């Protein structure tokens, strides 16, 4: 059919365009609460909202949904802006819900005048008792029938700061008998004597999400207000408020399934715990599935957008495996990252038949498929390092790397053969004595002799560098599955391995912060922008070359 391959939101928008529902306009918004850093779930929402606007020639706003003064902060606002831009999007307008506090107050007054809101003096606990739940019917608040005049008076005095926190709330007067508890006179304003990051001390009453969100959408001329499935049963409230207060064109709410990813927690509250309890180095710790953590890990915006496209948009919850994300990252980096050589656990090799004091420069391709990425020179001389794991004194069958009497290829260099082994007092292998075949320069033998193993290597003069290897932050697939257990008990104790004395080929000593490489056979690496210093890069492993978790 015409709509095949489209998600349900694209179908809705195309239908709306046909019927002229919003005068042909498409205007979405991404509405984070600035109470933490954005995570990969937000990336899905960003790609969706900005993506739909792009696709249909519309607009997308960035709205900071800052109606709770206790948890919000200007630092968070800045991190959100940076992350959205880094992902590759630009907003039509940037707004704060708090910019609308005056308008929202007027809307609340209007609702009181219509007899559709009242000041309730029950405590928060009493309100929830009176409201009941899906199994328990609601009961009217004793304050439900206050007169419009009394409500107007009390509400203006709430605003003026005459009452302490919790003394009163403003509630929408809807239907205490509704089967949907959301409609049982939901609170829409509460008293909070607290400093707000944007409005300072101007206000001591703050609108609640259900009231602020739909009206902010209306004020901005949003057409399609896209949120996650938990809000489905609140759509009737969204509609009730908008229908009572907005004349003319109005926004509509649509719900999609939030991203659920294995081996991580996603809620900002939990991510904040990891940060404040110093279980990670910060919001941008490369193990965190925050956008800033992914960026510092070396993930690219292209890979993250590709991930959002591949997981798609649906109306039913499902789990996405972490390996999907890793695949997207690997594919992008494979195409673009220049190759380099580094040795994580160096084992010295001395080539006995190579002239002492001689150094030759070998030309090495920067990318096997992309000649346009050029070549670089890697010095080769009598002493070098290979990976300790690439040698075994008594190898099992099928071990194609180096062992006594065996010959292997050094990447882009020569064939070498292990002649003897030098050990320390404790019997550890500390050096290999090898010979090389000068006829194999570049990596092939003119006599057609084959070797099975190709090893990466660096010259013995190679500079040292710090390399950080990351594993998943949690060892459980769903760390917060069990509400009675602390998700932090599932932290993976081996999620970070720091190697301070890796050896890297000479050009890597000058690698620019934020550059990316494939270290041959080891994975993709990113030059850490925070901890690297000139001439002293720190390399974060973004992802391995293969999925080491695949069974
Ligand atoms: P959290 O519980 O992680 O704090 P939130 O929904 O409270 O998430 P907001 O800042 O309110 O965070 O979210 C901004 C937007 O991002 C909302 O529209 C929300 O629906 C969307 N969003 C949040 N988490 C996800 C997710 N896991 N998948 C898709 N969209 C998400
Ligand atoms: Mg929210
Ligand atoms: Mg939240």
From TrEMBL:
Reactions accelerated catalytically: tRNA(Gln) + L-glutamine + ATP = L-glutaminyl-tRNA(Gln) + AMP + diphosphate
CDD domains noted in UniProt: GlnRS_core
Domain Glutamyl/glutaminyl-tRNA synthetase class Ib anti-codon binding: 337-437
Coiled coil: none
Keyword Aminoacyl-tRNA synthetase: yes
Motif ('KMSKS' region): 265-269
The EC number(s) this enzyme carries: 6.1.1.18
UniProt GO MF annotations: ligase activity
Binding annotation for ATP: 33-35, 39-45, 228, 258-259, 266-268
Protein name, entry field: Glutamine--tRNA ligase
């Amino acid at each position: 059919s015409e709509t095949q391959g489209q998600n349900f939101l694209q179908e809705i928008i195309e239908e709306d365009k046909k019927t002229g529902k919003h005068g042909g306009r498409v205007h979405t918004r991404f509405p984070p609460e600035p109470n933490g850093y954005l995570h990969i779930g937000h990336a899905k929402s960003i790609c969706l909202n900005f993506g739909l606007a792009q696709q249909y020639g519309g607009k997308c706003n960035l709205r900071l949904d800052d109606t709770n003064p206790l948890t919000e902060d200007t630092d968070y606002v800045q991190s959100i802006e940076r992350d959205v831009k880094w992902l590759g999007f630009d907003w039509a307008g940037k707004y704060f819900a708090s910019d609308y506090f005056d308008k929202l107050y007027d809307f609340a007054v209007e609702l009181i005048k219509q007899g559709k809101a009242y000041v309730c003096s029950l405590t928060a606990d009493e309100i929830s008792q009176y409201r009941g739940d899906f199994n328990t019917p609601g009961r009217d608040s004793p304050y439900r029938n206050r007169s419009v005049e009394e409500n107007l008076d009390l509400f203006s005095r709430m605003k003026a700061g005459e009452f302490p926190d919790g003394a009163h709330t403003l509630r929408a007067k809807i239907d205490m008998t509704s089967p949907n508890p959301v409609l049982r006179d939901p609170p829409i304003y509460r008293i909070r004597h607290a400093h707000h990051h944007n409005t300072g001390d101007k206000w001591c009453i703050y609108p609640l999400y259900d009231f602020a969100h739909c009206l902010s959408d209306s004020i901005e001329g949003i057409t399609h207000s896209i949120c996650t499935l938990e809000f489905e049963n609140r759509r009737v409230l969204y509609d009730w408020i908008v229908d009572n207060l907005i004349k003319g064109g109005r926004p509509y709410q649509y719900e999609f399934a939030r991203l659920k990813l294995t081996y991580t927690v996603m809620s900002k509250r939990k991510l904040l715990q990891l940060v404040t309890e110093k279980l990670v180095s910060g919001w941008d710790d490369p193990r965190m599935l925050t956008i800033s953590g992914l960026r510092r890990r070396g993930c690219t915006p292209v890979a993250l957008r590709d991930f959002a496209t591949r997981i798609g948009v649906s109306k039913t919850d499902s789990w996405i495996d972490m390996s999907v994300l890793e695949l997207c990252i690997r594919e992008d980096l494979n195409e673009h990252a220049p190759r380099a050589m580094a040795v994580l656990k160096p084992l010295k090799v001395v080539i006995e038949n190579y002239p002492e004091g001689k150094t030759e420069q070998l030309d090495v391709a920067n990318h096997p498929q992309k000649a346009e990425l050029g070549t670089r020179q890697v010095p080769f001389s009598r002493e070098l390092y290979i990976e300790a794991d690439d040698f075994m004194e008594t190898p099992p069958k099928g071990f194609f790397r180096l062992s006594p009497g065996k010959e292997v290829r050094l990447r882009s260099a020569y064939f070498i053969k292990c002649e003897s082994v030098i050990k320390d007092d404790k019997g550890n292998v500390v050096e290999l004595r090898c010979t090389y075949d000068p006829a194999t320069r570049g990596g092939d033998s003119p006599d057609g002799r084959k070797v099975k193993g190709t090893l990466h290597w660096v010259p013995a003069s190679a500079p040292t560098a710090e390399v950080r290897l990351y594993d998943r932050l949690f060892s459980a697939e769903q760390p917060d599955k069990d509400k009675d257990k602390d998700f932090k008990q599932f932290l993976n104790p081996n999620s970070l391995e720091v190697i301070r004395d890796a050896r890297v080929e000479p050009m890597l000593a000058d690698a620019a912060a934020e550059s990316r490489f494939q270290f041959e056979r080891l994975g993709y690496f990113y030059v850490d922008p925070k901890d690297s210093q000139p001439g002293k890069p720190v390399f974060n492993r973004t992802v391995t070359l293969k999925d080491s978790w695949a069974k």
